[in-house]
Every structure is written in C-alpha cells, then in structure tokens.
What does this fold into?
Amino acid sequence: MPGPALAPLNRRDLVRLAVAAGVAAPVAGAARAQPLRTPARVVIAGAGAAGLTMASKLSRLLEGARITLIGARTAHWYQPGFTMVASGVWPATKVVSETADYIAPGVTWVRADVAAFEPEAKRVVATDGSTHPYDALVVATGCTLEWSRIEGMDPTLIGREGIASVYAGPEGAAATWRVLQRFMETGGVALHGRPPTEMKCAGAPLKGALLWDARLREAGTRGRAELHYFTPFRNLFAVAPVHAKVLELFAARDIAFAYDHTLTAVDPAARTATFRTPDGPKTLRYDYLHVVPPMAAPQPVRESALAWGSGPFAADGWVEVNRDTLQHPRFPEVFAVGDVAGVPRGKTAASVKTQAPVAAANLVSFLAGEQLEAAYNGYTSCPLITRPGRAMLVEFDYEGRLTPTFPFIDPLAEHWVPWVMKDRLLGPIYRAMLHGSI
Ligand SMILES: Cc1cc2nc3c(=O)[nH]c(=O)nc-3n(C[C@H](O)[C@H](O)[C@H](O)COP(=O)(O)OP(=O)(O)OC[C@H]3O[C@@H](n4cnc5c(N)ncnc54)[C@H](O)[C@@H]3O)c2cc1C
It folds into this structure.
C-alpha cells in the first residue's frame, strides 16, 4: 500500500537515518589502523546475519588467517522484513536472497551445520562429519523456534485453522497475510502474544497487534473483531517508557491485554488456545491466533560447555559471554554475536550491527595478545510499526535507557521517518552490513 507523501531525502538525511539504524554507531576501541597478520584458524558457526557480518569484518581485519564459515542454509532470510510480508506490504520474494552472495572473498564456506561444539578441544564437528579445529571461534547460530513447547502446535498448521505466525520464515509470513485477509472478511476473536523466553525482535508481536488493527480499520471490519494481546510478564515491553506508550496505543485502538498469560496449548480443530495463568489454565476460543513460539539456543550450543550453567540465560542454553566484550569467560578464544549471545537486550539485526564491530575488534585483540577494549552497550533498535506509513524508532541500551540517535524525532512518536527507514532503507543498509562495507 502507498505510504504518506514524502519529501526527497538527501545524502545527509540518509547518513543520519543510517546512524539511527545503528549502522554508524561508534564503537569504543573498535578502530585498528592495519590488518593483523596471523596464520590463525578462525571458525564462525552460523551463516545468518551475525555470521556473515563477522566473516566480512574479520576478512578485512585479518591478513593470512584461515576463516571458515559453517552453515547449511543456502537461502538468506531478511527477517526484519517478515512483518512487512505478513501485513501485505511486501511480497515474500523480497525477503529471500542467496547466502552465497554475501560470503566475503577468501572465506571458506562449509555447507553443513555444526553438530557438536567441543570447546575443551578447541574444535567443532560439522553435520557432514568434517572436524574444524580453531584458534578463535565465533558462535553465531541464532536461535531455534521451539514450536513443540506448545502442545498441539506444529508449524505446518500455519496458514490453516486460523493459525498464523510471522516468525515461521518467509512462507509463514506470507501465510499469515492470507489468514489475516480471511479474518478481515469474517471478523471474530484474534489472539496475539509473546512467549516466556528470550526472543528475537520483542517488538514484532506488538507490531502485529497494531498493524492488524490498522488493516481491519482499512477494511471497515474492525467493528466485527475483538483483538487481545497476552504476555507472560507484568509489562507489554521491558523498557518502561515503551511499555507506557504501548499501553496508550492499545487503549486508543481498543486492543485488550492481559499479563501473566503463557500460551501452552492449541487445539486447531476446536479453535481454542490454552494459557497458563496464576489462576490456573484458561482456554479461549479464537478465529485468528498469532503464535510466537518459545525460543532457545540451537541444541548443539545448548548441550555444549559454552552455554550458561546458571542464571537467567541457562535454561535455554544461550552462550555465556561477558556482556561488554562478548568474549566467553571460560573459553577466551570464543566470542558470541547475534541472537545466540546470552546477554540482556540484543536479539535484533540492529544489535548485530553494533555487536559485530565489538566482537571482531576484540577477537583480533585476543589473537594479537592485546587487551580487549571494545564494548557493546546493549544497543537494541526496532522500528515499531504502528500502522502502514507510521512507526516509532525505539532504541535503547542495557540500562533500558532510550538512546535516540535522531534527536529531532521523538522516539515515542508515530512518525513517517522510521516507516520510510523500515520500508526502503533498512534492507540496503542490512545488506551493506552483511558485506562488511559499513
Ligand atoms: C518476525 C521478525 C521480525 C524482526 N524484526 C526486526 C526488526 O525490525 N529490526 C531488527 O533489527 N531485527 C529484527 N528481527 C531480528 C533479526 O532478524 C535477528 O535478530 C537477526 O537475524 C539475528 O541474526 P543471527 O545471525 O543471530 O541469527 P540468524 O540471522 O537467524 O542466523 C542464524 C543462522 O545460524 C544457522 N544455524 C542454526 N543452527 C546452526 C548450527 N548448529 N550450525 C551452524 N549454523 C546454524 C541458521 O540456519 C541461520 O542461518 C526480526 C526477526 C523476526 C523473526
């Protein structure tokens, strides 16, 4: 659908937009005058946003190193575009490209996954049986979607029986739009929510509820629909001012919500969803159910000594790293970047953009036997779309402070600029990140 009328953007605007997207965020200690000459073996596990970016960055920062990227997926998914597909703004083809297009020259790509991490032996074993010893390892495997933790739920249901999920890949996002279109005709009860685990892009389920409301209003069927949002927590977003703003938006849009509700079971035949609540299980009938599954580190990570052994990141096996340096405290040659890193905040592509220069600089310093100086401040950013043509550019750090890089835009105002960034600029910026050129 067409966005609002826009003034043309000049180069200075674009640079400022890039800064706001985290692409030009300065990283303390990340600068290095010359590439480091080293014969080191560097293995990168995972060829998604974080793994490709790290491979590109390290291939520029290291001379003579053997860099091996291990990841089986040949299609690259631009996941931040999934909400655009699920709300009918983009076709699914726009979010799919080839992994091969982003592999930096000189990097060896092993088209298999890591089957086992063996940090004590400083090696990984791939699913094709090959073994890869390393002097430094980057864990960038992202997270897994744990559909089976919801009884009765199976990703093959998406697109049928009123079940949708923007998280289920490009096809899942396209199927979500089809289910939503049907719901726009019939109306009824729509249930949205988030899982009790850490998750990538915690803003996406909220965007879903707000966008769907906007689509129903456009279709003239909002009056026939009830929208509900459920969260296992006592807030709608972990950052207090954003929570307050979402409360305001939900009230204005007549979106009902409830705290302390965790989706535990789905019965597609009966079209019911069951939630765990402090008062016991609660079963609700739905006409449209948007499922966001629990998320965890991939099994080989979870089962390795790299995972946190205690604390809030232990249950789902996120990689134990120092939250500032992104270095493993027990295996100093190991770094984690992207969704798999066991740090508070993060888990967005914008976080990858800020983490990658930090992890790359620190990995190089580690190989050079130098002090690690680069630090990640928890920068997380999400253009929180509130309706087609408008979004809020929510940016924050570890402390939950809003960190707007666009001083003339209120981060909690629904504005056209973040929408334009989301619709037209972040894709090219993201691809430049994968190439390591920004
Ligand atoms: C619906 C949705 C909306 C989003 N919206 C935004 C947004 O608006 N803004 C934003 O900044 N971010 C957004 N994100 C989040 C963003 O896409 C992720 O945070 C980002 O992709 C993380 O990069 P990653 O490399 O850690 O994980 P991924 O990009 O998922 O890549 C992980 C890779 O590792 C591979 N892998 C898994 N297991 C193994 C293994 N054992 N061995 C080797 N490889 C393995 C996977 O196949 C995959 O290729 C969104 C995500 C979703 C799903």
